[in-house]
Amino acid sequence: MKPILDFIVDVLSQPAILVALIAFIGLIMQKKSATDITSGTIKTILGFLVLSAGANVVTQSLEPFGKIFQHAFGVQGVVPNNEAIISIALEQYGTTAALIMVFGMIVNIIIARITNLKYIFLTGHHTFYMAAFLAILLSVGNITGTLTVIVGAIILGLIMAILPALAHPTMKQITGNNQVALGHFGTISYWAAGEVGKLFKGKSKSTEEINFPKGLSFLRESTISISLTMTLLYFVAALFAGPTYVHSEISNGQNFIVFSLIQGVTFAAGVFIILTGVRLILAEIVPAFKGISEKLVPNTKPALDCPIVFPYAQNAVLIGFFVSFIVGVIGMFILFLFGGVVILPGVVAHFFLGATAGVFGNARGGIKGAVAGSALNGLLITFLPLLFLPFLGDLGGAATTFSDTDFLVVGIVFGNIAKFLGLIGIIILILVVAVLAIILQKRTNEKEAKE
Amino acid sequence: MKILVVCGHGLGSSFMVEMNAQEALKNINASSDIKVEHSDVMSASPDMADLFICGRDLEENTKNLGDVIVLDNILDKEELQQKLKDKLSELNIL
């Protein structure tokens, strides 16, 4: 009996196999052909292994960066990037993360079925990242074992339904219909941008009425913009650390300019590999989730990834990105003055969150709303990571962290509650948030019915 | 035949459009040999697929890919289905 049990434990503690098993079940439930089932299952395992290979590349680039930065400025430099931190975290938390993801999706379906929060969160990579994030957060907060999975899945499923609801009033204004919701874990930034935008209601014309240069569209390709900013950050750090230090201690004699270029682009290469892995992992799971949820809960709104709002206000996208990024750079200098940890501008988050915040701000308050909303996002994603780093445990020492607002806010709120009130506090918080969300949604629905 | 849907990050919106495209292909009774996949716009090259799909915001970035369907509204299933139908008829596949 024991060898069999050991075998089962071995299988379930390998996240690659565990997730493949979930994909396998999903494929069977969709009555796919034997060849589809085989290739789909293998692709999922492959995805996990590709992802961990990417993690090695990212770490290889981040470790020397951390050292050079520390030597140059005497403080810890952190580049927020979801893909980088996730790939590192999965080595330790992979199994828990996989379980939280699957059960979280089930909780999302149950909530959409029994409450008035009729949203199904279909942005698979964010579900996956949030699951890994919750695995870390709860483990560091001493909620361990099976409880990590249960509590994690409930929190995940809850925010998968609540956050799209929070963004939805402005979302309806942007898209002009009530068909789709926004499912992206930067929602608190978007909601805030919409609220700030209301201050300029009717006082500012829309961003789409101005002419804006089109030549910057290559920055839309995230791997290019990561390469550019990371090379620049590397170069500045190496310059301040002094070429002698870099040559003797880090680069093994290689010229520091060449070293900065190669390492900066290596980071982007790592993120690129990780993205390929994530794509393979989710290729089978998201369609299964979509199919099952459509069958079990009709009349829900799919909550989709943030670029779906970009075509509605393309100038707001560019304005939002630049404003958020510039605020991030200014914030970085302010953090230098204070010492301690410096949050460097993570270009992916400034792009996607800044742009979406710009679109939300524009929908409520035109150009001024777009600028104010994305500036607010820049502030949030630059300063919140500071409050949140302690809750990452050992991973807090890594030169990277989570970058998007909802991770930061969930981390700070649940992290503090877990620390001071323990499990009871978490359960009370979950209940309060759920009840509040249901009541607010009820009010919104009534208001809508009147209109 | 292979269709590749692209977006900036290659994770979220291209994946949604891929699922919609599969549904659309079924609706217009296209051959089941047509494979649909998704990717980020940077790694897409002309040899990766016979036909590409992207949102209007990435029109500039996909100019050199060859046959591209540009969607005005990437969520609009009807627009996607109509454009797929037109394009496949034009290519004599449908």
From TrEMBL, chain A:
InterPro entries: Ascorbate-PTS_EIIC (IPR051562), PTS_sugar-sp_permease (IPR004703). GO terms for cellular component: plasma membrane. One of its GO terms (biological process) is phosphoenolpyruvate-dependent sugar phosphotransferase system. Keywords: Cell membrane, Membrane, Phosphotransferase system, Sugar transport, Transmembrane, Transmembrane helix, Transport. It is found in: Cell membrane. The keyword Transmembrane applies. It is a multi-pass membrane protein. The chain crosses the membrane at residues 12-29, 93-112, 119-140, 146-167, 224-245, 257-282, 316-336, 342-363, 370-392, 412-440. Belongs to the UlaA family. The phosphoenolpyruvate-dependent sugar phosphotransferase system (sugar PTS), a major carbohydrate active transport system, catalyzes the phosphorylation of incoming sugar substrates concomitantly with their translocation across the cell membrane. The enzyme II UlaABC PTS system is involved in ascorbate transport. Homodimer. This is Ascorbate-specific PTS system EIIC component. It comes from Staphylococcus xylosus. The lineage of its organism: Bacteria, Bacillati, Bacillota, Bacilli, Bacillales.
From TrEMBL, chain B:
Coiled coil: none annotated. The keyword Metal-binding does not apply. This is PTS sugar transporter subunit IIB. InterPro entries: PTS_EIIB-like_sf, PTS_EIIB_2, PTS_EIIB_2/3. Residues 1-92 form the PTS EIIB type-2 domain. One of its GO terms (molecular function) is protein-N(PI)-phosphohistidine-sugar phosphotransferase activity. Gene3D superfamilies: 3.40.50.2300. The keyword Transport applies. Keywords: Sugar transport, Transferase, Transport. One of its GO terms (biological process) is phosphoenolpyruvate-dependent sugar phosphotransferase system.
